[in-house]
């Protein structure tokens, strides 16, 4: 989940797993897998960077939970 702002400057949280496409038209339009579209004030690059940081945090958190296999 990432925090974004709509054109009226109101913040909301988006489930990144529902994103199908992100386009700059020049507004940033996010199309979800259910066909709904959202226009946000962040640029495409900012949205992508937030997604990368979110995914990185999830994977790093999960890597820390995995114990390495013992070598025989």
Q: Can you offer a commentary on this structure?
A:
The protein is of the alpha+beta class. It has one helix spanning 44-65, and strands at 2-5, 11-14, 19-24, 28-32, 37-40. The strands form two sheets. A three-stranded antiparallel beta sheet has the order 3-4-5, with no helix packed on it. A hairpin with a 4-residue loop joins strand 4 and strand 5 (37-40). The longest helix is centred in the last third of the chain and has 22 residues, at 44-65.
The mean pLDDT is: 91
> Whole-Å distance between the termini?
40 Å
Low-pLDDT stretches: none
User: How many beta-strand runs?
Assistant: 5
Q: What portion of the residues fall into strands of 2 or more residues?
A: 25-35%
Question: What characteristic shape results from the CA principal axes?
Answer: elongated
Query: What is the SS-derived class?
Result: alpha+beta
The major β-sheet equals: 3 strands, antiparallel
Helical segment count: 1
Helix coverage percent? 25-40%
| Rg, Å, rounded | 16 Å
Would you list the SSEs in sequence order as H and E?
Answer: EEEEEH
Q: In which order are the strands of the major sheet placed? A: 3-4-5
């Amino acid at each position: 989940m990432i925090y974004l702002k709509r054109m009226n400057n109101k913040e909301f949280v988006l489930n990144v797993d529902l994103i199908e496409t992100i386009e700059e038209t020049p507004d940033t339009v996010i199309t979800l897998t259910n066909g709904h579209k959202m226009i946000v004030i962040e640029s495409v690059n900012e949205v992508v960077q937030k997604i990368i940081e979110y995914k990185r945090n999830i994977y790093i958190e999960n890597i820390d939970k995995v114990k390495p296999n013992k070598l025989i």
